[in-house]
Structure formats: structure tokens, C-alpha cells
Design goal:
It is built from 11 helices and 11 strands. The chain has 330 residues and is of the alpha/beta class. The protein has one domain: Rossmann fold (3-Layer(aba) Sandwich). It starts with 10 loop residues before the first strand and ends with a helix. The relative contact order is 0.13.
């Protein structure tokens, strides 16, 4: 049963913000768009997050730095998940809340908007990386086969290997910590996000030119080796080569020119997710942003500027929640 009397309150945990649900059926890790994910996602996405919280989910807002090296930030986000996990159990135990959902990482889901979707895609793609270092190197070299920059290839291989070892150590630490808190074991199915549902809202996998204008300036940055990493091509190769993305939902908007190419690539080229998990709605790229004022929702950067809670739910939130539930049941 949905509890609409619950108040969404975030507390800082590690580098993230957590709204702990008293009786959680799962956890949603939310990664917002570039600007709004850095400056106050708990404000800009307030209405969507409140709706998800009322459905019974603990919410984790995961921040990221403004950088062109998305490999590094994806690694930070993965470390952050394992940094927060034991703290969820500890906080719930102290507060007298239910913590059962936190003991199996299949109860953890991801929702991203815009650039946040790229990070989720990288985390899922990394799930396919082989466990053995020599096999991982072969996988990464194949991924970056179009480049002749050996230093870049070696840098990515080194970063991935370091991340693998750190995550393995962190999982052991998490198990010990959680057992010391509640005398229970946790089930972790993968170093990354294997088996975890994800919903991508207006995903934007773009190049340096999308962030830097005019184009000639972006070209200079790319030529100096300071541009977006991984590139659009590298990201798409990682997604294709992973063979995953079967429990992903895709949400696109009819007036959205920013995510248009990424949505088309997922549906027409990758032909994933399955057709039933692809939704198209009215609105533009910033439709997920919104703040409730009484019985109305202010659509901060979309039309109509003001609409009733019922209208907003019918046009967006209801469908996102339904999509999430359908994916979890699949």
C-alpha cells in the first residue's frame, strides 16, 4: 500500500544523500543530469523522488563531479554504492526500521536522467568485464581498438584493474561490517550491477561538442586528448559488447532533441531494451524535473508550467513507477 504521509528527508551519507524508508521494498540509486545533478538534485527532482519514496523505496542521490573523464566518475559511483551499503543497514537498525531489503543487492535499482544515464550504462557495461586481468585487458583493447594511443589504452586498463581490486576488498569489508551490525549475511551478486534493474530517463550519450561551444573549441580539446572519455563510439561499443541491458527501461520524450539520437540508437541499432520496456511521453528533455506546491506541480523547465498532481502523474510519474515494477517482475 502506498503511504502518502511519508516525508522525504535526505541525510548525508559518504558523498551522497539518503532518504531512508521505514519499510523499504528496495533501493533506488538516482543519478541526475549534469547541471541539476551537481546543484541540488533533491530540489530539482523533488516531485519524482517523493513519488518513488511513497512507493516504498529508500532513495540514494548519487552526485558526480563535472569532468570529461566519465571512466573515473563511474568508478567513483561504484565505490560509493559499497560505501553506503553497510551504512543503510546500520542506520535502519538504529532507527528501528526494516533492513531486510538491503541484504540482497538485487533489491537495488538505478534511475538516471540525461548524462546520469551514461554513468549507469557504463556501470552495466563494466559488469561484462572478465574477472581475470589478462582477459580484461583483451576486452578493453578490443573496445578501444580504433585508437592508436597506447598510453590511453594502458591508462584505462590500469584504472579498471585498480577498481576491480578495490571493489573486491570493499565487498569483504561490507560483509564483515553488516554482520557486526545485525548478525546477518548479505548477498552480493556481482562486483558491478548485474541483476539490478535500471530506468533511463532521456539518456544523453554525447561527445565534447555537446558541452563545449563553438564546435572548433571542442575539436581543439579533443585533439589535445582532454575531451569526453569514453567517447560516444567507445560507450556504444561497451554497451553492445556487454550483451546485457535486458532489464533496462527506456523513457524518451517527443520534444527532446538532446536525447533523441541516444534513444534512437538504443531502439533502432541496439534493439534494446525489449519493446515493452520502451516508453514515449509528451514533453522535453527536462520533463523529469518538478516541484510540488500544494495540489500542483511546477514543471520548472517544461510545459505546461503548472499542472495538477493528477495530470502530472498521468503524464509521467505513474508510468515510471509502473515501468520499474514491470522490470522487477520480469
Amino acid at each position: 500500500m502506498v503511504n502518502t504521509n511519508l516525508k522525504l528527508r535526505f541525510k548525508p551519507v559518504s558523498h551522497s544523500w539518503v532518504a531512508l524508508h521505514p519499510q523499504p521494498k528496495g533501493v533506488i540509486q538516482f543519478i541526475a543530469g549534469a547541471f541539476f545533478g551537481t546543484f541540488g538534485p533533491m530540489i530539482f527532482y523533488r516531485y519524482l523522488l517523493q513519488c518513488l519514496y511513497e512507493q516504498g523505496y529508500t532513495i540514494i542521490l548519487m552526485p558526480f563531479n563535472f569532468t570529461f573523464n566519465h571512466y573515473v566518475e563511474a568508478g567513483f559511483l561504484m565505490r560509493e554504492q559499497y560505501e553506503i551499503l553497510p551504512e543503510l543497514v546500520r542506520m535502519a537498525s538504529v532507527a528501528g526500521y526494516d533492513y531486510e531489503a538491503y541484504l540482497d543487492d538485487k533489491n537495488f535499482s538505478w534511475i538516471g536522467h540525461s548524462l546520469g544515464c551514461k554513468y549507469i550504462s557504463l556501470l552495466e557495461g563494466f559488469t561484462a568485464l572478465p574477472p581475470e586481468p589478462q582477459d580484461r585487458e583483451k576486452f578493453i583493447r578490443n573496445l578501444l581498438s580504433y585508437t592508436s594511443d597506447e598510453s590511453q589504452i594502458k591508462s584505462v586498463i590500469a584504472d579498471i584493474n585498480i577498481l576491480f581490486e578495490e571493489l573486491k576488498r570493499k565487498i569483504v569489508e561490507d560483509r564483515k561490517l553488516i554482520y557486526s551490525y545485525v548478525g546477518r549475511e548479505i548477498k552480493i551478486n556481482s562486483l558491478f550491477i548485474k541483476g539490478q534493474v535500471s530506468v533511463l530517463l532521456a539518456p544523453a550519450i554525447a561527445d565534447t561538442g555537446s558541452a563545449i561551444r563553438p564546435q572548433f573549441l571542442a575539436d581543439i580539446i579533443d585533439n589535445l586528448g582532454w575531451g569526453v572519455k569514453p567517447t560516444v563510439e567507445e560507450t556504444r561499443n561497451l554497451i553492445k559488447d556487454s550483451g546485457l541491458f535486458n532489464i533496462m527501461g527506456l523513457v524518451c520524450f517527443q520534444s527532446d532533441n538532446i536525447a533523441k539520437l541516444t534513444c534512437e540508437w538504443f531502439t533502432n541499432v541496439l534493439k534494446k531494451p525489449p519493446h515493452v520496456f520502451i516508453k514515449y511521453f509528451e514533453g522535453g528533455h527536462l520533463k523529469p524535473l518538478g516541484i510540488q506546491v500544494g495540489k500542483y506541480v511546477i514543471n520548472l523547465f517544461d510545459q505546461p508550467f503548472i499542472e495538477s498532481v493528477q495530470e502530472r502523474n498521468r503524464g509521467f510519474e505513474h508510468h515510471v513507477i509502473q515501468l520499474l515494477e514491470e522490470l522487477k517482475e520480469d
